[in-house]
Amino acid sequence: MIQMQDVHKKYPNGVTALNGIDVKIEQGEFVYVVGPSGAGKSTFIKMIYREEKPTKGAILINGVDLSRLKDKKVPLLRRNIGVVFQDFKLLPKLTVYENVAFALEVIEEQPALIKKKVMETLELVGLKHKARMLPTELSGGEQQRVSIARSIVNSPKVVLADEPTGNLDPDTSWEIMSIFEEINARGTTVVMATHNKDIVNTMQHRVIAIENGRIVRDEEKGEYGYES
């Protein structure tokens, strides 16, 4: 599903974020990406949805080489990739329903199908009853649920999450993680960068540890391995 071959990333300021990454992630896997701050985790995630391009190496998503993908084809790629951010990135003037529907409107989905998909997805994340509220009327955990709903409403093959519980209290974090587990159980590949030691050690999945831009550990049912 996702393959990186000798991927390097050096930013214009001279910082080397990734240094010779080789990895394969299969369809349906749940993968945690862990490591110290500044290790290259966010860059790793950004590479997969072509927010950043590698300085060297190849990244294949479903056999498509992203380094050779024309810019006009990137929106088509991202239809199959959902992204969840730490800071939610919701549109503040749109309701919960409108934020989730927006992902379908930009690809010109039929209105009747948009309504069906949005309501089904809001039900999955437990927010069907708050469809008409604005993001400012929601708690942080509820806003993250909207962000997740927006990322999965188009039934992507891959969901990427960059510190999705970073701004949430422990109880809410577990609730959010149960949604990711459900998404993964439905066959979606989940790749999550996280600093949450308790979640990684309790809800065990494959762990890829990155330090100084290199993969130093790749374990099938791994543990966090760092002081939180």
Automatic annotation (TrEMBL):
The keyword Membrane applies. It is found in: Cell membrane. Transmembrane segments: none annotated. The keyword Repeat does not apply. It comes from the Bacteria. It is a peripheral membrane protein. This is Cell division ATP-binding protein FtsE. It comes from Bacillus methanolicus (strain MGA3 / ATCC 53907). The lineage of its organism: Bacteria, Bacillati, Bacillota, Bacilli, Bacillales. The gene is ftsE.
